[in-house]
Amino acid sequence: MKRLALLIVILSGGLLLYATKDFPSWGDPNSPASTHVSPRYLEKSLEETAVPNVVTAVLADYRGYDTMFETTVIFCAGVACFMLLRKFEPEERDLYYRHIPTGLTLHIKGEKQIPSTSKEFEKIDAIWTPYDFIINTVSRFLVPFIQLFALYVIAHGHHSPGGGFQGGVILGASIIVLAVAFNLRTAVRRFGEKIDGIMSALGVFIYAGVGAFCAILGAEFLNYRALAKILPVGKVMARSHGILAVEIGVGIAVMAVMICIYNNVASEGKFDEGL
Amino acid sequence: MTGNYPALLVTVPLLAAFVIYGCSWLHKRSCLFMALLGLTIPFAISVALLKKVLINGHISYHLGGWDPPWGIAYELDPINAIVLVAVTTVALVNLIATSKEIETRFSDRRGAFYALYLLFVVGLLGIVATGDLFNLYVLLEIASITGYSLIAMGDPARAPLSSLNYVFMGTIGACFYLLGVGYIYIMTGSLNMADVHALLPPLYHSSAIVVAFIFCLVGVMIKMGFFPLHSWLPNAYTYVPSPAASLIAPLMTKVMAYVMIRLMISVFSPKFVFSSIAASNAVVWLACLAIVMGALMALAQRDVRRMLTYIIVSEIGYIVGGAWIGNATAMSGAVLHIINDVLMTFCVFLSLGAIARSTKGYQIENFSGLFKKIPVTMATFVVSGLSIIGIPPTCGFFSKWYLILGAIEGGHYGFIVVLLLSSLINIILFFRIFEEAFFVYPKTNAVHTEGEASIAIAETPFVTLIPLVLTAILLIFTGIYSGSLIALIIKPVVSAGLL
Predict the structure, then answer these.
(1) Residue A98's beta-bridge partner residues?
(2) Does residue B400 form part of some domain?
(3) For chain A, how many structural domains are there in total?
(4) Cβ of A16 under 8 Å from any chain B Cβ?
(5) Hey, are the CB atoms on A35 and B14 less than 8 Å from each other?
(6) What is the pLDDT of residues B137-181, one digit of tens each?
(7) ipTM rounded to 2 decimals
(8) Is residue B62 part of a domain?
(9) Which of A165, B12, B79, B103 has its CA 20 to 30 A from that of B337?
């Protein structure tokens, strides 16, 4: 079996090498890839979409339909993680609480528990790691700056490298850093599972919804030009605004899905202390 | 609005999936209703599109208002319109028939289940409708990821591992396809199928294009479970939860078979595939091997569901063989077999899901006496079985008939022998089940399950039974009308493509 696998690997590698024989040479300006469709993207994208960043124009407008489905792929991954990992039935076991003022750990056997509203006790797991003042404080300070940067990355995708995917990941990281520095319960208290689930659907819904809205306004699906009918801008600028709207949708979806995946994987779907 | 039908066909279930998942966090009960709505609308649209394509001919829809090759386009011809109708029909009927089981089995995560169900359908619809090579890859990813997770929800002991195995194989397949598309892009600078088709002829002898074709084909063949690359299929389709089984098993492999035919006709041309590559004999022989091996491995199974998964492997062999014989009759037979196989695999898996309510397992022994207990459900199982064997009034016969005619025309007598042989094996496979269900009566239950009184098993509930009976009737109707199906829909496109 191993020999057969080796044979197949060598065969595929050989095919790959054989294919390069007829490739255009490296960086050739006359290769088909740089003469067929790309010139229009490079030369016309600013006047056709009013977006200086060519990558954004191709990604979110010329081939915006692909990007919608790429965002859907991410959404699928989040839903799949929820579906496969989330456990709703609590496993029967002992409860541990930390007394916040003193740091003592309380171990309760059996049915009794301290109400979750208690200010003095905090539910923890047996594998609880102690409170770390420096890490906690620093990461708490970092969160707003991370989020601000994320918003910048999303909003500035028209002009510089960035956009919804990158900004969304950074936004998600700002919540995940809380989960890593404190614990998962703290992060989930700040940003609950329900709101996270709704936002992951909302984000992709914004993208597809903008597309459907263009269709309702009488143009093709995702033809942002149609937005000029309701926005006080010209048809070309409407494309730019449409791109911004879908980038915001992508940002929301990616953020929510990142958090959903982290929460479910880190706690094996139990939503307890986490890693 | 009617002008936007091609986009709405795919995006209505897409939007519905997002709304369902969002709403499931607020109000769980409304999910089923929205899922039904989200599949009824595309069903209606697909029927309208088929009608429109038959009257007006080819439809090309430019997404985002950008002309291809710069933007993405949807291309609809009669063949993919009818495949779209088949996909939406199966998805809708299956949801109605299995809704009860979904609601009880996944009650705490039904929103996620329906969302993944709809997204799977979105993926397949997009794959069939698209005219863009990369868009096809993205939608393939959606259909695969949702498929993996639906399969992993099955039997907790075995399903996750079989799904993981499928993830590995499926990802390798997708990678091969993507590599092929990348090579095509390097050589032509385009991703639009029609544009690539026009740019390719001067490049037919380029090594990169030949390798690109091989890679695309191998990727698609892994995804459709073509014989030596089928190893993920039996386990994945055996342990999948039954509401998802009757969705995934009929659709995924057949849609990928359609993609293969699409690649052969609309991206590369028959001239390239049958003359420049000159591998058609080898592929037909490989298909023969697939048919025989699938049938033999099915014969070795005692578990009925597992047996059916090997029958799928064998059916894929028919389609690949028919497509590669390389004449219009065989190609038409292959396309007809895609549609027929969608319907009959759907019917057999759906009735098996209904039968499983009344049995303790999927072993052949569990079927004893079932004709008495659930006569109507068993009747639908018999109809689908007869169709898979290929007995005249059912649709399975007609596609095999065209395949055989095509094979005679192309001089592939080995293929004919193999086709008849596998039909004979299918007779054995199904009649040993029918025999068990019809003639063998279970010894008094008390002997097997100590103390427990024998429970009279009632007929399947109407919500499952009616769709099931309708599907069985559809099998016969498709059979009766397959002549006009070929003449009106399939033959014109295939002949135009092959000439």
Answers:
(1) A105, A122
(2) yes
(3) 1
(4) yes
(5) no
(6) 999 999 999 999 999 988 888 889 999 999 999 999 999 999 999
(7) 0.91
(8) no
(9) B12
